[in-house]
Please model this.
Amino acid sequence: MEILVTNPTDKTITPTINFLSVEMVEHHHNWMVYSTALCPPTIMVYCKDCGEEGSVSDFSEDEWDNAFWAPEEEYPWPDKDRVSVNKHKEKGE
Ligand SMILES: [Zn+2]
Model:
């Protein structure tokens, strides 16, 4: 007597591992406008991924008008080429 055993639920499970370390090597800042400064006129931005702060001093009137409302509602700043990353100064002089 022959017994055939079939198992239709037998599937090979392949674990999927996503390595995110590439992002650590080359991080593209995700700039958000959050405020403006007046002296000198500067659009203030920060990276919502790593918290880095930067500023934009080369902007159009429209961009300045939009940025005026950034403290109410921050929004993405797409042109990373115009962002100057703030240098973190050491405490003390
Ligand atoms: Zn960043």
